[in-house]
Write a structure and sequence with these properties.
alpha/beta, D-Maltodextrin-Binding Protein, domain 2, 5-stranded mixed beta sheet, 3-stranded antiparallel beta sheet, metal-binding, SsuA/THI5, pyridoxal phosphate, metal ion binding, transferase activity
């Protein structure tokens, strides 16, 4: 349209065409969606930052704000309407949901459990889970941990007796210096970091010893938000799926994007790259069958039942739940299925 020598007729047609295509862009303002993280930025969040960086959210007419991590859980922020979506841990989804929190998982970040029980590789006295009887566990003080470890030990023929020292995030240092005998870790992050640091570890996978496999974490919202914003939620999940699918197809670039978007939080690019490699090689972000994002109803039922039978689920009054809730109300695939 900058050629002043074109005919007046061409100019009129071009102006009309421009107005036809440009008007919606100017008339429609991008819809804002807020997302709360469950921890400081890491590779579990890679699809969110890739979708933002590559313009997938923009293409869906969304202005997505990834909120800074705070001490208030993402589930609490979502259930109370402070955030539209959040990264929800599997156990917190079941426990908060049973207690009455309005939480609904809408996207499975990983297709199988990234957690594992770990101990120092030089421990000749630990070869099977039953060897952990009478030993000291360094952990985080939750009922889930107790049920998890007891199940693993008992599945191997042990009694499930062990001492617990609540150490929080220092559990990994305590394990390295021998202050505790074993702990739990995320294999795709702490496990990768230990390997990079040359700390030799051995591990037991939960699912190999009687614990149901699970989606370790989700992206979820509240039923109130989803029901009131059906199309907006569908656009957000579709764009988020595109972000994770791109990360699976281009893990090295995705790692670079994650570091680029979070330079203050992610100061070890090698760890991020290695973690992405572990997520890909372990079939976590994309399952062995090629699944990305879809929530497995059988996994949800088995894990929910495990938590209920071990007395971990409590009602709104803080009492152990007498009846198992309808676990299907804690998740939905209606937003991810159209994107697949």
């Amino acid at each position: 349209m900058t050629d002043l020598f074109h005919t007046r007729k061409w100019l009129a047609a071009a102006a009309a065409t421009f107005a036809l295509h440009a008007a919606p862009a100017f008339a429609q303002q991008a819809a804002t969606v807020t997302v709360a993280l469950d921890w400081t930025p890491n590779t579990n969040h890679v699809g969110l930052f890739v979708a933002q960086n590559k313009g997938f959210y923009d293409a869906h007419g969304l202005d997505v704000e990834i909120l800074p991590y705070t001490d208030t859980s993402a589930g609490t922020l979502v259930a109370n309407g402070v955030a539209d979506f959040g990264v929800l841990g599997s156990i917190s989804l079941f426990t908060q949901g049973t207690a009455g929190a309005d939480l609904v998982a809408t996207y499975a970040i990983v297709q199988s459990d990234t957690g594992r029980l770990v101990y120092s590789a030089d421990r000749a006295d630990i070869t099977t889970p039953s060897d952990l009887d009478g030993m000291t566990y360094g952990g985080f003080g939750s009922a889930w941990e107790t049920a998890l470890i007891e199940t693993i030990i008992e599945a191997d023929g042990g009694e499930g007796n062990f001492e617990t020292v609540t150490l929080g995030t220092s559990a990994y240092q305590a394990l390295a210096n021998g202050a505790v005998d074993f702990t739990l870790e995320v294999s795709t992050w702490e496990g990768v970091q230990a390997e990079l640091e040359g700390t030799a570890q051995s591990a037991f996978r939960y699912a190999d010893y009687g614990v149901p496999d699970q989606h370790t974490n989700f992206i979820g919202s509240s039923s109130a938000y989803l029901d009131a914003n059906e199309e907006l939620a569908a656009s957000f999940i579709e764009a988020t799926y595109e972000g994770y699918a791109y990360a699976v197809a281009h893990p090295e670039e995705a790692a670079e994007i994650l570091v680029e978007e979070n330079p203050d939080a992610l100061t070890n690019p090698e760890l991020v790259r290695a973690s992405m490699q572990a997520l890909i090689e372990g079939d976590y972000l994309k399952g062995e069958d090629g699944t990305i994002g879809l929530i497995d109803p059988e996994k949800m039922q088995r894990m929910g039942t495990f938590l209920f039978e071990n007395g971990i689920l409590r009602d709104a009054d803080g009492d152990v739940a007498e009846d198992a809730p309808d676990f299907s109300r804690f998740y939905t695939n209606r937003f991810i299925e159209p994107a697949l």
